[in-house]
TrEMBL record:
It is an enzyme of class 2 (transferase). It comes from Pontibacillus halophilus JSM 076056 = DSM 19796. The RNAP catalytic core consists of 2 alpha, 1 beta, 1 beta' and 1 omega subunit. When a sigma factor is associated with the core the holoenzyme is formed, which can initiate transcription. SUPFAM superfamilies: RPB6/omega subunit-like. One of its GO terms (cellular component) is DNA-directed RNA polymerase complex. This is DNA-directed RNA polymerase subunit omega. The keyword Transferase applies. One of its GO terms (molecular function) is DNA binding. It comes from the Bacteria. Belongs to the RNA polymerase subunit omega family.
């Protein structure tokens, strides 16, 4: 069970639960494939937890590709 960062605090940075799940899963795969962390130190030993911490700290963002919707 994950306690920190809370879902409510994460939703302040990412406004959709679905986007949050997708973004954190993609970032976790990048971290697993040895992409460098965006934070100097994380509390979580797991990749998804580390990705969520990056989102919480405002280090990870997303943008909507308008051309992909056409």
């Amino acid at each position: 069970m994950m306690l920190e960062p809370s879902i409510d605090s994460l939703l302040k940075n990412i406004n959709s639960k679905y986007t949050l799940v997708t973004l954190s899963a993609r970032r976790a795969r990048q971290i697993q494939d040895e992409s460098p962390l965006l934070l100097e130190r994380t509390n979580s030993p797991k990749y998804v937890g580390q990705a969520l911490e990056e989102i919480y700290e405002g280090k990870l963002h997303y943008s909507l590709d308008e051309d992909a919707l056409k």
